[in-house]
Amino acid sequence: MQKVYTKIESIVGNVVTVRATGIRNGDLALVGDSYANVIKLDGDKVSLQVFAGAQGVSTDDPVKFLGRPMQVSFSEHLLGRIFNGAGVPRDNGPALTENMIDIGGPSFNPAKRIIPKHMIRTGIPMIDMFNTLVESQKLPIFSVSGEPYNQLLARIALQAEVDVIVLGGMGLKYDDYLAFRDTLEKGGAMSHTVMFIHTAADPTVESTLVPDLSLAVAEQFALEGRKVLVLLTDMTSFCDAEKELAITMEQVPSNRGYPGDLYSMLASRYEKAVDIEGAGSITILGVTTMPGDDVTHPVPDNTGYITEGQFYLRNGRIEPFGSLSRLKQNVNGDTRDDHRALMDGMIKLYAQYKESLEKKSMGFAMSDWDEKLLKYGKLFEEKMMDLSVNIPLEDALDLGWEILAECFEPNETGLKTSLIKERWPKKLD
Amino acid sequence: MDTATGHVTGINGNMANVKFDGAVRKNEVGYIHVDDKRLKSEVIRITDGIASMQIYEMSNGIKVGDPVEFTGALMSVDLGPGLLTQIYDGLQNPLPELAEKCGFFLQRGVYLDPIPNKDWEFTPTVKVGDSVVAGDTIGTVPEGIFTHHIMVPFTLKGNDWTVKSIVGKGTYNVRATICVIENTSGEERELSMVITQPIKRPIKCYEERLRPDEPLIMQLRSIDTFLPVAKGGTFCVPGPFGAGKTVLQHMEAKNGEADIVIIAACGERAGEVVEILKEFPELEDPRTGRSLMERTIIICNTSSMPVAAREASCYTAVTMAEYYRQMGLNVLMLADSTSRWAQAMREMSGRLEEIPGEEAFPAYLESTIAAFYERAGKVRLKDGSIGSVTIGGTVSPAGGNFEEPVTQATLKVVGAFHGLSRERSDARKYPAIDPTESWSKYTGIIDMGRVERARGILKRSIEVNQMMKVVGEEGTTSEDYITYQKGELLDAVYLQQNSFDPIDAADPPERQRVEFDLLYEALTSTYSLEDKNEIRTFFNELRQKFLDWHGTVFQSPEFEAKKNEIAEFFKTKVAA
To answer: Is there a contact between B400 and A296 if contact means CB atoms under 8 Å apart?
Structure first.
């Protein structure tokens, strides 16, 4: 029973209202030829949010209710494809209609969760060695706009040891989208990637659907036993889109105009990250741009309360301070016996380097020890922190020892003597 | 009892408007029928014959005209033996059983019996003809290490009830009728081991409320000595993300000297609950030798679960706490985090189009928070025994700024404030409780006068440190520099505690007293140290000795030896 209604009573923002009966909350409809979903019912008044925006919608446009909620097709055919925020192909491939699944499904039962214990190798020393990414972790990259966060995401996508990559782009610049596509194609990762891309020029509503589409698909892959990495960029655009819609709907704003349920909105998406016992897993790596480099801005602030740590991207590097992977201790005990100690030792020395650097900039005299630290800090930044460095964890650890040996005497490093005996590189002279 | 029925007339987010026939109570529970599912909802407002109901589940698929069945009962939980060790969601659905039934994902509209269907060894304590009132014990069953009292429902009205029949000692199913009571007008009630209690009504079946004057030991030095919590008291733990709120609460749940611990994971990460789920059954409660899980109940409504049930989860937890308090037990209830609960209230208030207060929180935020914390308390029960409910809630202030409505409303009503600071957590000083901003109105395990003097040294030390940043070490007098070092010593060896060290993780009060005595002597002595280098070396060495001391087993020969070594060490430098 696909009854068509042709009398739209009001059009406010992206929301149209029509009188209809027997309509379910959350159902999908076609307004003209654009998708819309039911967001409010009041008697026979049905409010619909038009995905493509209500611009140009006429009061006599046909409204056709499809009798089902927003869905996305799930099959192997998704791999290598690119869709927009409404699930419509963006590449030149055919639309997929088989095996439709609901998006925004129920939450994972906490009692069925397991303690995450598998590392995801990325080949980036600042991640693998210092803030290990763990399967089923949800981790945002906090960044100021202008930083190369999308390049970083693309590199992680190429190098991470996962089975499927789902890329959700929200408010992406068109050239960023092309860059993602080209990088993944060139790197040969496109064959196991699905993209849901909303560009900045697309209708706002579609931006809010991208995380749900991406995660619904990811969940199905994970249930089939795949290791899925979901990349979401940029979550601040997603929140801004939600803000825009909430204000249009005349919701009372809570903090800097954002809706009061911002936390729940973010949490219901990030919490989809899970390691399923006996099947696959979902790991979420998001980008949260911080307006004005302000971590107390509602979006990074709420995100920080939800995610399991964060990476700070600053000056083109992943900052060792402030960056944190809350799950790293679950895995970095079983990698190599010197991993934890070397990680702590190198960071402590790097912190001292920063102090020396400050002293130097203030014009204080540099001691021998300061000079050693300065040399160390420079090497550390060049060989470890630079984002272009691409080496496996074991090589990164070896490199760490080499840097230490180049700058310090063994007893200056604060590392345990037994470790030094085993790992300290032999002097060439 | 006649219950009303109705049908949906409107839906907005997780709020449904329902036109009803018959009588409907405010806050009564109703079920909205969607296809073959029944979705639990609560009436939160009635206007012009329309009931506004908040739905405790996802509201997708509801349509206008869907039938609604009201229950006539307020939002309630079932209380009875078998609650301990359970993991519930905010509506008291047992999650492991739900997983068995529904698999990996939570399905809406599935409600299981919260009380395990088990037989218990019942011993009656009343006989036919005895008169009983609400809250009276009619018998006991052994639940783990506790004697679980089977009580007359707390909601029973009137004091003219007598026992008409009661079963003898024996094994009965938890839901079997074990007792029948009747009143003078001939009304009869069948009682089983399970009673139903509305979650938003405090249980008041006690003789009197007492002042919380006995410390609740957490085995954390910074709390027990400097910022004590009392049995029957309240405390809050605000802090920015990453400051260690949840880790601190887990420590309290592990080491707190309460009989029963109830954890309400309210709107936080599911991963953190998993840590408790997997860790607690493995840990041994040192006082009983049994698994820690045997004294624990977990209410778990994590951030991605329905928002309305988040609010219910705090009340569900505190109702269970009151229930065990009625058995003369000391219950510690921990809520993580009350901000999420307040946000759930804000969301609902927005849907009801109420006039918003500060940061869009409803105007009744403060009174609701106050009423919640007031459910804590130490009480003398009718049989003379003493029970208590202690409530500790974390607060997640936006941007780590304590000047926000939830933190401020909470600070007004709690007895202790353990504020966590980002500075301390960044410097890896755990627990990251800010020693100068935090406060407690309770009496701790150590004489307050001496604690205050130690705190004074710490405050002065922080001032000196601030000053040194401007004038440098060179411009500081030796006297000030020693005060600074003393404060640093107190912080490093007393306030900070290594939760990963098997011995230091839990510091019993007897040990804290010994440690504080020695440290106090070291802090209040005057030293004859001149050179700054000498001062620094002396305090570094003293600190190292104290830290080593923390690693020794209490009252072992090494412990005593280390203690004497420290005393001898600093006394050599004390000024004559």
So the answer is: yes
